[in-house]
Amino acid sequence: MLTPEQFAVLREEATERPFSSPLNNEHRAGEFSCVGCGQPLFDSNTKYDSGSGWPSFWAPKDKAVATSTDHKIGVARTEVHCSKCGGHLGHVFNDGPAPTGLRYCMNGTALTFTPKTS
After folding, report:
1. How far apart are CA 89 and CA 84, in angstroms?
2. pLDDT digits (tens, 9 = 90+) for 75-113
3. How many separate domains does the chain show?
4. Residue of 47, 71, 54 whose CA lies nearest to 16
5. Where are any strands of DSSP class E within 15-75?
6. Start-end of H helices in the chain
7. How far apart are CA 40 and CA 82, in angstroms?
8. Which residue ranges does the record assign to the MsrB domain (predicted)?
9. How far apart are the two ends of the chain, measured CA to CA in Å?
10. Positions marked catalytic
11. Tell me, what's the pLDDT at 67?
12. Measured between alpha carbons, how far is residue 25 from residues 12, 62, 78 in Å?
């Protein structure tokens, strides 16, 4: 069952406050998945500190996300959704690091983290 904050982000396309998610500071090896359906979305080796206040990644897992155009703030942005359940995850921007040059800026409340076990 989703918390009210998770529901607002995933199903109503809200945005969490910057620097509010503990996942922003998660640095262990592991996997980030959709809190709505459990689909694996990002590997920890693609996560980096963008300084934006949201967990950021330079690439998702293959076929894990879908995108659409969002005009909610008056400019076009690329919105990122879980490809399985359609949950809103965040946005992707063209100001990320190599090798992709992309910054998948995700709401931590839309994600779960599973540490890698030895």
Report:
1. 12
2. 888 999 999 999 999 999 999 999 999 999 999 999 999
3. 1
4. 54
5. 30-34, 40-43, 47-48, 56-57, 65-70
6. 4-12
7. 9
8. 1-116
9. 29
10. 105
11. 96
12. 25, 24, 24
Cβ-based neighbours of 42, under 8 Å, separated by 6 or more: 31, 32, 57, 59, 60, 61, 64, 104, 106, 111
3-state class percentages of the chain: helix first, strand second, coil last, to nearest 5: 15, 35, 50
Provide the CATH number for the domain around residue 87. 2.170.150.20
Helix (H, G, I), strand (E, B) or coil at 7: helix
pLDDT reading at 31 higher than 80:
yes
CA dihedral (1, 13, 28, 40) in degrees, to 10, reads 70
1 contacts: CB under 8 Å, gap ≥ 6: none
Distances (CA, A) of 47 to 12, 72, 85: 25, 26, 22
Location of structure tokens 């293959």? 62
By C-alpha distance, which of 7, 96, 88, 84 is closest to 40? 84
Question: How many other β-carbons are positioned within 10 Å of the β-carbon of residue 83?
Answer: 18
